[in-house]
Amino acid sequence: MLVVRQAVVGPFAENTYLVADSGTGDAIVIDPGGDTARVLGLAQPDFRIGRILATHGHADHLVGAEEFSRRTGASFQIHVGDEPFVRALPEQAARLGLGETRSPRISSFLEDGESFRVGNHEGRVIHTPGHSPGGVSLHFPDDRVIFTGDTLFAGSVGRTDLPGSDGAALLCSIRERLFPLGDDVRFFPGHGPAGTLGAERRTNPYAGEDLSPRPTPSTRRP
């Protein structure tokens, strides 16, 4: 069984996820946004964390990545489009009042369409730019689960007034790359509650199917 555990961390209430195979004990962490001890506790006593995957490079999602990698030995991966954000992580964190941090070492870059495994469960990387150039969503097709970072929220979408963001690209990512995955797919966003792609396709006020393109939120979250 695919296990999903969540910790809400930091002043921006960022969702950090542990995703694990209950049979093999293998696990990954998605977007370690701080409070490393508590996130490590999500794995106890059953799971071994081997990789850290980042949905994008904003500091509220990565401020704990270097410490987490150092304490666990887990590799860190992100899309190349957001590499500049990783290099500038200490400056990002200071600007947002997130304290001192170091940039994690990138072991390799995530690529669109790339497959990865968590035990016996296969995941797939989907490049979903818009909120950031290198934003990705992490899809587990057989489990009907996807982690959308700050691309799609329950009832909202990611900000597009940040450096490197693009409102048209964000809507394209949601409508052409996420919604076609199926109405029953459960999504876990970077902030706020989980939901289903079908509910967002029908009712999301910024990206729903019956709505014309409109400005995306500019003040919701980093």
Report what the structure shows.
The chain has helices at residues 36-41, 59-62, 65-72, 83-87, 89-95, 167-178, 197-203; strands at residues 2-9, 14-21, 26-30, 48-53, 75-79, 108-110, 115-118, 121-127, 136-140, 145-149, 152-153, 156-157, 186-189, 195-196. It is of the alpha/beta class. The protein has one domain (2-203): Ribonuclease Z/Hydroxyacylglutathione hydrolase-like (Metallo-beta-lactamase, Chain A, 4-Layer Sandwich). The chain has a six-stranded mixed β-sheet with strand order 1-2-3-4-5-6, covered by helices on one side. A six-stranded mixed β-sheet has the order 7-8-9-10-13-14. A hairpin with a 5-residue loop joins β13 (186-189) and β14.
Helix segment tally: 7
What are the segments in which pLDDT stays under 50 over at least 5 consecutive residues? none
- Note the beta-strand portion: 25-35%
Average pLDDT works out at: 94
Number of domains: 1
Order of helix and strand elements from N to C terminus? EEEHEHHEHHEEEEEEEHEEH
User: Fraction of residues in helices?
Assistant: 10-25%
CATH fold annotation: Metallo-beta-lactamase, Chain A
Q: Do you know the CATH architecture? A: 4-Layer Sandwich
* Main β sheet profile: 6 strands, mixed
Instruction: List how many beta strands DSSP finds.
Output: 14
- Radius of gyration (CA) equals 16 Å
Structural class: alpha/beta
Distance between the termini: 33 Å
State the name of the first-level CATH class.
Answer: Alpha Beta
Largest beta sheet: what is the strand line-up? 1-2-3-4-5-6
Shape: globular
Name given to the CATH homologous superfamily: Ribonuclease Z/Hydroxyacylglutathione hydrolase-like
